[in-house]
Recover the amino acids of this structure.
């Protein structure tokens, strides 16, 4: 009887995901399996940032673009399927960087930096958020310029749009809030 071949552990990728163009920065440090598809990484980023997955998105790795193309979407024929692209293949090395764009109207560009790749002592079963700062901007706020205007009105009770902004954003929204435990609770739901 042949000995059972021991499976090699799947490497873990530690990623830093930062929304470009916003100061102070909004970022998350997450760990995911190296064999995760870009489709699943999209879902992970959505939860980690607090986005609602209401808009189109794409990954840009060098000159390659990955998304979830369908016949109804206005995709260029050169867009590759993110469902077949694995993180370990598109970013095989530490310090690799690539872009995740969410909401083509607001154009939230996220830089993804591969900080570390390692083989864990125990297999990583679910993605995990290790750290981060600040809440992501509310959906549909108008990109960076709209978000900056939003913050001015949000923080100034005397601003003529303050009340409307507070109603729109909701009483729970806090631009400076980062809740790692809540993010990890949401990440546990991703299969």
């Amino acid at each position: 009887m042949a000995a059972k071949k021991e499976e090699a552990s799947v490497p873990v990728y530690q990623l830093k995901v930062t929304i470009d163009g916003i100061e102070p920065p909004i970022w998350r440090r997450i760990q995911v399996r190296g064999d995760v598809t870009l489709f699943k990484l999209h879902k992970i980023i959505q939860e980690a940032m607090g986005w609602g997955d209401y808009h189109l998105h794409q990954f840009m790795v060098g000159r390659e673009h990955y998304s979830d193309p369908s016949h109804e979407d206005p995709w260029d024929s050169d867009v590759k399927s993110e469902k077949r692209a694995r993180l370990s293949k598109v970013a095989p090395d530490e310090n690799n960087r690539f872009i995740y764009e969410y909401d083509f109207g607001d154009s939230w560009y996220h830089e993804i930096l591969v900080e570390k790749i390692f083989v864990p002592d125990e297999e990583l079963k679910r993605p995990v958020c290790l750290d981060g700062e600040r809440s992501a901007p509310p959906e549909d706020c108008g990109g960076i310029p709209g978000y900056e205007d939003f913050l001015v009105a949000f923080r100034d009770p005397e601003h003529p749009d303050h009340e409307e902004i507070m109603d729109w954003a909701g009483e729970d929204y806090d631009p400076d809030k980062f809740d790692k435990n809540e993010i990890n609770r949401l990440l546990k739901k991703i299969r």
